[in-house]
Amino acid sequence: MEQTAPPKTESSFRLPIFVKSIRFQLTMVYSVFLVWILIVMNIGIYSVYTRSLSDVSEIRVPFGDMVAWQNAIQAEREESLKKLRDYSVLGTCLVLVVGAIGGYFIATRMLRPVDEVSSLASRISDTNLKERIKRSGPDDEIKRLADTFDGMLERLENSFELQKQFIQDASHELRTPLAIAQTNIEVLEMEEAATKEDYQQLVDLLKMSLERIKDVSNSLLLLSDGTALPSQMTPVDIQKLISEVYDEMGLKVRAAGLRFDWQPHGATLPVRGDALRLKQVVINLVDNAVKYNSTGGMVKIEALRKGNSAIIAISDSGIGIPAADLPHIFDRFFRVDKSRSRERGGSGLGLAIVKKIVEDHGGTVTAQSPGGQGSVFRIKLPLWQH
Predict the structure, then answer these.
(1) Residue whose C-alpha is closest to residue 46's, from 82, 20, 11
(2) Is 379 helix (H, G, I), strand (E, B) or coil?
(3) pLDDT for 84-122, tens place per residue?
(4) pTM over 0.90
(5) Among the residues of the chain, which ranges form H helices?
(6) Nearest to residue 92, comparing CAs of 15, 162, 34, 158?
(7) Which end of the chain is more exposed for a tag (fewer CB within 10 A), N or C?
(8) Of 15-19, 123-127, 299-303, 330-334, which range is least confident?
(9) C-alpha angle 19/21/23, rounded to 5°?
(10) Please, what is the end-to-end C-alpha distance for the chain in angstroms?
(11) What is the DSSP letter of 380?
């Protein structure tokens, strides 16, 4: 009867975990290097010692049998060399054992911060991002590793906080028009004597709520990382673009009791970009200047060339921006005055959209508010290079 071969199985022999550790590998490398040094040192000592001995045949004795004396001296030398070899081997083994043990503990001590990093990384979650290694000591590679990990945790913590705040703000912006619409629907349902005008008013309110939700959704879509500018951008004349904004926004600015200043120059300022997006930037900033201004105030637009860049400056004589808030005004959903911003219909996304579009065009946007009196927003865009 034919016997079948037993199925192949993986070897049950497995290396201990500590063998795979860095400290063990460092210890082995250190030990091999130490053994190599000791072998070379012992060979060198043995060679020098043997060469320093004179030939036995040249030794002269003062009396007795010379051959017997030479044989006795040769035997003594061979015994001394044997002891030298034995002591060398014993010393090498002793130094190797002590060196390996010492090297292992030194490696363990030096790699302890790496263990701390590993242990901390295994415990990290979105609920305990405040933990840090906080390693003290000399500014060596290990400390720099620990500091880098602490910095990464701090950035992660900030990102999680921003994400949490972003979700809360976005939920609030979307929930508010929905709550208004639902409340009015419920009120009208309980009104037995509702008229056609009441229903028409509700329809108008629902349209406004839906438009509000649409605006917030479009803004969030624009700010998402997946939304990019068209690959084929065209030359855009900044002078012409601002003139169009001046015509479109002039009625709104003057209706608010403000003076609208814009003096176009003869020279063109061509930039490479998306005309609709760039117009949205200028409109957002002008709209912002109108919202936070007061009757009798001023909104001014300037455009000029500076080196290889086009500069657009939009200034107003409004309430200004506190110095502490200036670094945050381009953050999503940030408002200098939350209650007043909501009353004016702001979602806190306008300036974030401005920054996103400008940076997508390779430019920068900055804000100044000297003494909290009025604001100046400056956009810098690279000129079209023919």
Answers:
(1) 82
(2) strand
(3) 777 777 777 877 777 777 777 777 777 777 777 777 777
(4) no
(5) 22-52, 66-110, 112-123, 141-190, 196-223, 238-255, 275-291, 338-343, 350-360
(6) 34
(7) N
(8) 15-19
(9) 105
(10) 89
(11) E
